[in-house]
Amino acid sequence: MRFSALLLTVLLVAALPSIAQEKSEADKLSVSLSLNHDAFFGFNPMLAASYPVSEKTDLTFYGIQWGAGTARAWGNWTEFGIGLNFKAGKFAINPQLGFTMGSLLSSGAAQPGVIGDGIVPNLTINFDDSKFLGQFYSGYYAALSNKTVSSGQATNNYMHYWVNAGVKATPWLALGAHFENLYLAGGKRFNGGSLARTDGYQWVGPFVQVSKGAAGMRFSFGADLTDNTSFSANDFYKLSFFFNF
Fold first, then answer.
1. Structure pTM?
2. Contact 60/50 with Cβ under 8 angstroms?
């Protein structure tokens, strides 16, 4: 009995450095969760993770559950991607390559969802210091598969980008402005020919952000600058809850 207890103690002591090393490696991983809701997509939560591979470079991952909102009709549209984040002073430059699962890009939501629905090269640039904050995002959503089967169906390609900037009025309050654009960039028809460019929305307006430590909330709102020929008719409103771990 004493020998068994001694052996167990020795094994535990021997395992402690390995456990400590594994915990130390896991602690290097940064995770952020954004619970996003807006006037076009509805609820679209996003989780991002980064792991340092050098002093100024991180390996990054992200996932978006578009299908939690209106995109449930697009084969429960889902996006996953990977990239690298480069730190340059107060800037973080993050090119990534994403892939979508669903039906929006591969058939214009006319057919069932598939893996490899589309490919999404994208770029995010963040700026953050003691007084100012800002972000630029641009992503091109291109059909990776063609699942059209009849006349009237087409693949879809979209361009989505935004830019915002603000000032930190207090340690917990930031105020700024947001501009965002989404449009159908084209696509291939089943019976030949291409889709024409069509406006989705051009949102512009102010934002207010409140935060404490690693958690906060941002509300953006304003006007849609597109006319009645666009495929989105709502005013501009977007609400995000964010948590950083």
1. 0.89
2. yes
C-alpha span between 203 and 186 (Å, rounded): 21
Contact 143, 187 (CB under 8 A): yes
The one-digit pLDDT tens for each residue of the chain (245 residues) are 454 445 445 545 555 555 445 557 778 999 999 999 999 999 999 999 999 999 999 999 999 999 999 999 999 999 999 999 999 999 999 999 999 999 999 999 999 999 999 999 999 999 999 999 999 999 999 999 999 999 999 999 999 999 999 999 999 999 999 999 999 999 999 999 999 999 999 999 999 999 999 999 999 999 999 998 999 999 999 999 999 99
What one-letter code names the amino acid at 52? P
Count CA within 13 A, CB hemisphere, residue 143: 24
First-to-last C-alpha distance (Å) of the chain: 44
Query: What does the CA dihedral 184, 70, 95, 88 come to, rounded to 10 degrees?
Result: 120
In whole angstroms, what separates CA 157 from the centre of its chain? Answer: 17
Burial level of 18, CB count in 10 A (0-12/13-18/19+)?
Answer: exposed
CA-nearest of 146, 228, 232 to 187 is 146
Instruction: Report in angstroms the alpha-carbon separations of 208 from 9, 50, 95, 123.
Output: 56, 26, 27, 24
Closest CA to 231 of 163, 185, 170, 193: 185
CB atoms within 10 A of CB 154: 21
Pairing of strands 91-102, 57-64: unpaired
